[in-house]
Amino acid sequence: MNGTPSDAEDVRSLLSVTSVNPTPDTLTKLVKRLRALTLTLLPVEADIESISEPTSRIITPQVISAYKAAAGDFTEALPYCLLRARAEFIWDANHNPADYGENRGRAIACEVLARRIVHLAEPSRVKDIMAKRYQHRQIDGDESEMSSALEMAIDQHCTIFLSSSEAQEVVNALWTGDLIQKNNENHDIDYVVYADTREHSFWGHFDPSRLSVPRYQNIFRITVWLFFLVVYSRAVREPLERLNDAHRVLDGWELVLYVMALSFTVEDLHKLYILLRFVTWRAFSFWNAVAFVTDTLLISAFILRVISLIAEGEKESVMRLRSFQSNLFNRMKLVTIFDGYKYIGTMQICVARMLKESGIFFALLSVLAVGFAQGLYALDAADGSTEPPSTHYFSAPNPRFLKTKRLTLISRAPDYGKFAASPTGLMLYYLWNAVTAIILLNVLISLFSSAYSDVIEDAEAQYLAFFASKTVGMIRAPDSYVYPAPFNLIEAFLVAPLEFLPFIRLKEKTYAKLNRYVMGFIFILPLTLIAFVESTFDRRKHTWMENWFRGNDEGSEDLPENRDPVVDDPNCQGLEISKIPFEELIKVFPNTVQSTEATILKEIGTVKQQLQELSQKIDRLQQS
Fold first, then answer.
1. Burial of 332 (0-12, 13-18, 19+ CB in 10 A)
2. Taking the CA of residue 538 as centre, how many other CA atoms within 13 Å lie in the half-sphere pointing to its CB?
3. Cis bond leading into 486, ω under 30°?
4. What are the CA-CA distances from residue 271 to residues 133, 267, 294, 433 (Å)?
5. Distance CA 259, CA 253 (A)
6. What is d(CA 325, CA 236) in angstroms, rounded to the nearest whole number?
7. What is the rounded (10 degree) CA torsion for 568, 573, 579, 583?
8. I need a labelling partner for 185 at 20 to 30 A (CA). Which of 269, 319, 396, 602 fits?
9. Membrane-spanning regions, if any (predicted)?
């Protein structure tokens, strides 16, 4: 059949497609075809807002129908392929600055098309379209890692796609555990409905695998960190009693503190390993780096504390002091613990974006600092001798200048008297402070302002994309048995060796049974609470309770009885609300689905058709 199908035919085609498993070569061919279509659709640069707006004159219903027709029998894989095409256009934009605007617009168009196509899918097929995993052929000829449309959108931070109601429906199902992962061979993962795998009873829900549900992981993690803060608050009191001989050894609070620190470090290292092996380095975020820094400080604090135990005299006190000073930054991770709440999550996004932008500032500051330090050192060495490091901060062997002067830069407290004896050095130092305190600091402020405004202007979409990344990141790794910290040490040192080490390696079924018994014993309290809540408060059977607590938004229900309500009030006999039918009322409404240009063209086409019919009637009258 020539041409593109009608909207109704195309929707039926999308809904009737069954799940298929195309090879990477097949999907690569589809990606290339979609790229060719997008290059034809946008041969020149287009405004980003005109592409992404709901009534876009570029992404019209006819364009969406053409893209769906271009996928043939592989419509279910179309969102995945469009997002893959988006990644390639972003790569082209970053490596070809001359065509950055054009390729950026094409990437946004692919993302918008993927969102619109998923929106047209039948609700029962949305989870399969979003969560089904595919592979494609990479540029070097290797096959890519298995990934779904949802995971690919998360890796690329596709805020337009991830902020859609369909994407959030799948994310919320993963968050609450209604949709769970099923581990297959070769570290592959499928997502299945949890209700289809268990009977709805207390013992059916008493399942150690429920600890892997992101919502329960988040609650458990918050509880553990609150306990960790209590332990830390008690442990930091130890330096106050450092003169007491009873506290020259590790006390109970310190032991708990460092055991928990070790468990957090093992957990973060395991996440890093999983990201690099099974996912992609693009999933490595700024807060993974923060976690690495805080873990390093905790381990350093433990090492210094051990050194203080074996040291004597003044060194013992110094090492003990340094140990507790290294613990001061562990509260930075609190931002990542409560990021499931919208306000804190949005704040975290702002902070991360600002700190990333500050990298430009500190890079420029470091280059300038080295340059000015070298210039002042040259002035000092011009007479054939230099001052010793103890009296001259610009001497090469003394690195204190860069550290001290960066702090005085921020505090606006430069020391000009240090260079009063040298007019040239004083002028150079004036220039240094002018460049750093006036120019670079204003650059830093503008970078912070730009980063903050970028996040706040699109805060809803940014947070929804962040929440999707957080949710999928908790379950993305093929881990069948999740031991939350600090109990992951039991798995690492007592259980996991029985899976890998020779001579004591257990069979797969025996190892699975051992994990169920161990987890059932350790986590009997949280598992009991989870099973009780899930088996008692089934949302499908107790929707009245949810509506009672949250309220039922009846205005969102577009039902026939809401359109033309009937008055059955005995006090209002003969009176009606629907004197004018609903269909008659909406005839005067403007068409908000189409853009202004599309509406005008449609009206012009209608007038043109009427004129053509009128002309034909006039010709027939003249002939008769």
1. middle
2. 10
3. yes
4. 21, 6, 15, 43
5. 10
6. 10
7. 10
8. 269
9. 286-311, 360-379, 429-448, 514-533
Which residue reads 């009176």 in tokens?
575
Cβ(56)–Cβ(112) under 8 Å? yes
**Token code pair at residue 210:** 């429920």
Asked whether residue 110 carries a pLDDT value surpassing 90, the answer given is yes
For the segment 364-391, the average pLDDT, to the nearest whole number, is 70
Residue found under tokens 């001359």? 98
- Please, which residues have CB within 8 angstroms of residue 596's CB and are 6 or more apart in sequence? 55, 57
Mind listing the pLDDT tens digit for each residue in 205-263? 788 888 888 899 889 988 998 898 888 888 777 555 554 554 567 778 888 888 888 88
CA pair distance 242, 248, nearest whole angstrom: 7
pLDDT grade, residue 411 (50/70/90)?
very low
What is the helix (H) or strand (E) element at residue 259, kind and residue range? helix 252-278
Q: Give pTM, 2 decimals.
A: 0.76
Among 404, 260, 225, 244, CA closest to 320: 244
Instruction: From 72, 198, 157, 38, select the one nearest 534 (Cα to Cα).
Output: 198
Q: Which token pair is 393? A: 């901060």
